[in-house]
Each structure stands twice: as structure tokens, then as C-alpha cells.
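Hey L., structure's done. Input below.
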Amino acid sequence: MNLLADENVDRQIVERLRLDGHEVLYIAEMERGISDETVLERANERAALLLTADKDFGELIFRARRLSTGGVVLLRLAGLSAEAKAEIVADAFRDHVTEFLHCFSVISPSRVRVSWRI
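Output:
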């Protein structure tokens, strides 16, 4: 899977997804500090699924109509260790990866929700 991870995504998550065979570009390694709009542009340029822990992307996509062609996965995993987050995300990608494409999805500790097609 072609992914673009926002810089607020824990490095352990990025490394785990790479280990599992996903192609993950990481904003923290590329262009630290860029705006959310620019992150979304980078995801669109690469037709990548955007992985973020920033709820503001929901507003950008739905209110401002700034679409992500690959889809968006929002991580709602606050309070967990980076290792626990990486395990939850890896499991979600193993079980739901094709469902995430072109959708707005949320991964939380107890469930994965695939919402609107974007």
C-alpha cells in the first residue's frame, strides 16, 4: 500500500508498516513543519493514503472540500504506548487495507470505522 504518514504519526507505526511491506513516505523525514494543506497536496500528488493523528484533516476534507484521492486514515490512539499503537495499526491494515482506499477511516483501540467514500 502506498502511504503518506503525517509527522504526528509515531515513528514506530511508520517502521512497523514498512516492515509489513507497505511503502510509507513520512513527512517527519521529508518536510517537517509543513501545513496540513501541503501534507494533503503531497498525498494527492502521490495518490497515497494519508495516515494522520490530526483531526483537522476531517474538516479540510469535508468542510473545505479538499479531497485526498487515496483516502485518509485518522488514528485516535491517544494514551497508548507507541508500540501498542503500532500493533493496533498493523492489525487494522492487515484486516482492512483495501477498505481504506478512497475513504475516510478511523482507527481506535477498540474498532476500525470506514466511513464516507471521498
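The mean pLDDT is 91. The first helix runs from residue 11 to 19.

-- N.
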